[in-house]
Design a protein that fits this description.
CATH class of the largest domain: Alpha Beta
Helix content: 25-40%
Keywords: Metal-binding, Oxidoreductase, Signal
Distance between the termini: 17 Å
Number of helices: 31
CATH architecture of the largest domain: 3-Layer(aba) Sandwich
Oligomer: single chain
Structural class: alpha/beta
Domain Molybdopterin oxidoreductase: 119-594
Strand content: 15-25%
Bound molecules: ligand MGD, iron/sulfur cluster, molybdenum atom
Number of strands: 35
Region (Disordered): 91-110
Shape: globular
Protein name: Molybdopterin guanine dinucleotide-containing S/N-oxide reductase
GO molecular function, one term: molybdopterin cofactor binding
Largest sheet: 7 strands, mixed
Length: 883
């Protein structure tokens, strides 16, 4: 692939937009002087007020800043159809009760993103591809030619028909999201379902970690988190793997900072002194990634030894802590306390035992255990990534067990959650937009009910593994190469798979986002036909035969959607689709015609119906305990007539016009109001009358159901109680080798929402993609900051500059998620810095990719390749296409 072609001649958009966005892009999340200047009418360059002849519209930031929900207000200034400037929420006082929804640097760089030279401008075909000779080996290297929409759609329809006729739906891989609701709807997926379906690589999760099942089965909860106003009741915030400052849009870090100012102490257990620990923590506890389980068990030992646990709470509300309170049918010897003390295995899990695994000094383990036990109200939190480890459930088990030993769950100030605050992902949102999803129907290849969360828990399906047709995310590339997928434990063992066509669309950049990306490239090069649809010429599109330009949310718009569980947004259409791009609905309808399918069966709603549905179905919560909701918007007959849809007028809190004018609705809150959520409150008040939704009705420190489920899936074996174990013989702490002595982990980056925004120069400049390593490991290798280092794993090689830090735990290195891969064809080395070139494809437990713990080596690079700074590295453009 060549990188010589750059943004040289990118139309006037580039020049008009880039300057404004770059300058507006770095104001951070808190109000600043610059923002105030904007309020006073100064332009965002700080110059004298410019005459504004355009309009400020509400723009969508649809980035995935936490599992499908994005959350910040963008106001976009549009003149002559061109977006020029961005502001964020400046309405209302910025109070802790109703904080402003202020966009981050990524959101504020959206003008540069939406108008980026990385946009696919026209339908394109790879020059070396023809229906008779796909020439697949040239994918990712070939030149491109511009073709018409009709030509492109004809080719795609013919190739898809060929695959459906000759090999059936199981020969088509939909490398994109399934029908998962209104944030991401792709009518093309709906069309595939009408045609007989396709295989999706969506068994399990790359995202949630191993949290959902332990939460459900040990506590009966689902995404149970305190709300942002209740969290201030805690005296101690004991957090594992928290980087809210960088990876939770919205106000989570602000709220934690407020809770601290209200007297709470913040302790963050982390492999590095990340942005959040720097900003809010009273103490940073450095830990070897993937070993928090041992750390918790070491603290439990000290608590038990000194009788510091809340025994009354354990006796009344929990099963499985000690031999006296085991659930029916369980061997009393298998209780947690005896495991910790080493009563039967003769290995006491002392703080010294834990130190040897997790690297936290035993004295600190004792001190922290005492601090937890000595504090009445503790808010335990652990980030998703803490369970993205081999046998990931073990940490969730240890985490909940620690919180149960502390006691008080169900009372204000005592919480244990992996979601952090109710304002993020929530099973009980405070408000929501109406459903505007496509009604995509079921994928006939995998007709099982879609689980509540996007991809996990698969336990709905675990009851009938024989019916699984989903390929595990982590192993999907390998499975396709090997022609078999699944687990040996499945009835009948692994299942054959023979993929001929890949649809690389539906809001995924899977070539870049899934582990073992080199195998992904091999898969893309192996099949008969690959077609992509995306707004951007990102890696998953670079390896296609035909690509279609998709209109972004700024070009679709006219929709209300829920972000934070506490805000409903309106998205205006900001601009006309750039160049020849079209919404996905157009692609689905045009292909449907070519398949002799009724286009409305694929694209089930008109744009107007979608708008109406999103508005009329918008709701807000009136009482958390009873889960009562009321309609949000007053929709008049005139609104309905204007849209030209069928509908009934309704009464709500505000009119559609008011909602559009403001751009959003924020749930009004006051401390202690009817929306306050204290998880497990009713159970605490009366455990007999309000049992938990667990098999025993109590908190299950010993959870037989959890172990049974996990062990039936076939990825890892866990125990019904929290135990430290080496979860995989080739990954994670305890498995390092001489060849690969370092543990890789891949925290999410301020520069990107996964792979989105990696094309934005200002963000590349602000947040270079570096190999973060400790002074200890760097010195041992003669590496200094700025040196080029070669990162090697059994799966690939990545070249990056090193960033040597005293604030990172020795023995582990970090490379942040989402950088666009850019392979040097001669050496096979990735110059872009995609950690998935290195990542081991390893599912654990409930089928959750273990992003933390791939074994790597890092060496000073002395080969012929060079790297420009990220900001000067041109993005990959389609060679052969006129700019
Ligand atoms: N800016 C930005 N924000 C995002 C995203 C993004 O791409 N960019 N992605 C969004 C999405 S879809 C998701 S799923 C969430 C993910 O949310 P998380 O899983 O919470 O995100 P990470 O950044 O991987 O990890 C959070 C912190 O946990 C630490 N950590 C990793 N492994 C361990 C461990 O074993 N032990 C301990 N104690 N700490 C550990 C990391 O160093 C990091 O500081 O983020 C969301 N937010
Ligand atoms: N190494 C490593 N890998 C990881 C992770 C990690 O921590 N480490 N995290 C994992 C996690 S938590 C997640 S959730 C996944 C995310 O993996 P992906 O979902 O693949 O990542 P995104 O970059 O969010 O991809 C969104 C895609 O949608 C496209 N898009 C944007 N707007 C539109 C539109 O209007 N229409 C269409 N059709 N497409 C559009 C974007 O251009 C982009 O290609 O990555 C996982 N990968
Ligand atoms: S990138 Fe994420 S956090 Fe930033 S403004 Fe957009 S949605 Fe908000
Ligand atoms: Mo995610």
């Amino acid at each position: 692939m060549s990188n010589d072609l750059t943004r040289r001649s990118f139309v006037k958009w580039g020049t008009a937009a880039a300057g404004a966005a770059t300058l507006a892009g770095f104001t951070g999340c808190a109000p600043s002087g610059q923002e105030n200047a904007q309020k006073e009418g100064l332009s965002d360059t700080g110059d004298a007020p410019a005459e504004e002849t355009g309009a400020w519209l509400t723009g969508a930031c649809m980035n995935n800043c936490s599992c499908g929900s994005s959350r910040c207000l963008l106001k976009v200034y549009v003149e002559d159809g061109v977006p020029l400037k961005i502001r964020t929420d400046e309405q209302d006082e910025d109070s802790i009760e109703v904080p402003q929804r202020r966009a981050c640097p990524r959101g504020r760089a959206q003008v540069s993103n939406m108008t980026s030279p990385a946009r696919i401008k026209y339908p394109m075909k790879r020059k070396g591809w023809s229906p008779d000779n796909p020439n697949g080996g040239m994918r990712g290297k070939d030149e491109w030619e511009r073709i018409s929409w009709d030509e492109a759609l004809d080719y795609i329809a013919a190739e898809m028909k060929k695959a459906y006729d000759n090999y059936g739906p199981r020969s088509i891989l939909c490398a994109g999201y399934d029908d998962i609701g209104d944030t991401y709807f792709d009518p093309v997926v709906c069309l595939l379902n009408v045609m007989g379906g396709a295989v999706h690589h969506d068994m399990g999760t790359v995202s949630l970690g191993s949290w959902p099942l332990p939460e459900m089965l040990m506590t009966g909860g689902m995404l149970a988190a305190p709300d942002s106003l209740a969290v201030q009741d805690s005296q101690l915030h004991f957090h594992f793997g928290n980087n809210w400052m960088a990876n939770k849009g919205g106000n989570t870090a602000y709220q934690l900072d407020y809770a601290k100012r209200e007297g709470g102490k913040v302790i963050i257990v982390e492999p590095w002194l990340n942005q959040t620990a720097q900003a809010v923590a009273d103490e940073w506890v450095p830990i070897v990634p993937g070993t928090d389980t041992a750390f918790c068990i070491g603290m439990a030992y000290h608590m038990i030894e000194n009788n510091l646990q809340d025994q009354a709470f354990l006796d009344k509300y929990c099963v499985g802590f000690d031999a006296e309170r085991m659930p029916e049918g369980a061997d009393p010897k298998d209780n947690f306390k005896d495991y910790v003390l080493g009563t039967y295995d003769k290995e006491p899990k002392t703080p010294e035992w834990a130190e040897a695994i997790c690297g936290v000094p035993a004295a600190d383990i004792r001190r922290l255990a005492e601090e937890i036990a000595g504090t009445e109200k503790v808010n335990f939190f652990a980030g998703q990534s803490t369970t993205k480890i081999p046998a990931g459930e073990m940490f969730a088990q240890a985490f909940y067990t620690l919180a149960m030993m502390h006691g008080g769950l169900g009372t204000p100030g005592n919480y244990a959650s992996w979601v952090g605050l109710h304002e993020g992902m929530s099973a009980t949102p405070y408000c929501m937009a109406g459903d505007s999803s496509n009604g995509a129907g079921k994928n006939p290849v995998n007709p099982l009910t879609p689980p509540l969360l996007m991809s996990t828990p698969n336990w709905v399906e675990i009851e009938d593994p024989a019916s699984w047709e989903k390929i595990d995310h982590s192993e999907c590339w390998q499975s396709i190469l090997e022609g078999a997928y699944g687990r040996d434990v499945w009835p009948g063992g692994k299942k054959p798979i023979d993929i001929h066509v890949i649809y690389s669309g539906a809001y995924q950049n899977s070539l870049n986002s899934l582990p073992n990306a080199n195998a992904g490239i091999e898969v893309f090069r192996k099949v008969d036909f690959v077609w992509g649809a995306n707004p951007f010429f990102d890696p998953s599109r670079q390896y296609c035969d035909i690509v279609l330009p998709v209109a972004t949310w700024w070009e679709k718009g006219n929709i209300a959607w829920m972000n934070n569980s506490d805000t409903v947004y309106w998205a205006d259409r900001i601009m006309e689709p750039l160049f020849e791009s079209q919404p996905e609905g157009y692609i689905a309808e045009e292909l449907a015609k070519r398949f002799d399918v009724d286009p409305s069966a694929a694209n089930t709603m008109t744009d107007a119906e979608r708008t109406y549905s999103s508005l009329s179905g918008a709701m807000y919560m009136t009482d958390h305990d009873t889960m009562a909701y009321a309609p949000l918007l007053t929709v008049s007959q005139a609104d309905i007539d204007e849209l030209g849809v069928d509908g009934e007028p309704q009464e709500g809190l505000m009119t559609v016009a008011e909602f559009k004018e403001r751009g959003f609705f924020k749930i009004p809150r006051t401390k202690g109001d009817a929306l306050t959520s204290v998880p497990y409150k009713a159970f605490y008040a009366d455990p007999e009358a309000n049992p938990l939704a667990t098999s025993t009705g109590k908190f299950e420190i010993y959870c037989a159901g959890l172990a049974a489920y996990i062990n039936s899936v076939g990825f890892s074996t866990i125990s019904p109680i929290a135990k430290w174990q080496i979860g995989d013989p080739e990954q994670g702490a305890g498995t390092q080798t001489e060849e690969f002595p370092l543990l890789l982990w891949t925290p999410h980056s301020l520069r990107r929402a996964h792979t989105v925004n990696d094309n934005v120069v200002s963000l590349r400049e602000a947040f270079p993609q570096e190999c973060f390593m400790s002074v200890v490991d760097a010195e041992a290798r003669g590496i200094e900051t700025g040196d080029l280092v070669l990162m090697t794993s059994p799966h690939g090689k990545v070249l990056r500059p090193a960033k040597v830090l005293p604030t990172i735990v020795p023995g582990a290195v970090a490379l942040q998620d989402g950088a666009w891969l850019r392979i040097d064809e001669e050496s096979g080395i990735d110059l872009g810095g995609d950690p998935n070139i290195l990542q081991a494809p390893k599912s654990s437990g409930e089928a959750s990719q273990s992003w933390t713990g791939t074994l790597v080596q890092v060496e000073k690079y002395d080969g012929p390749l060079t790297l420009d700074p990220d900001k000067n590295t041109p993005i990959v453009m389609p060679v052969g296409i006129e700019e």
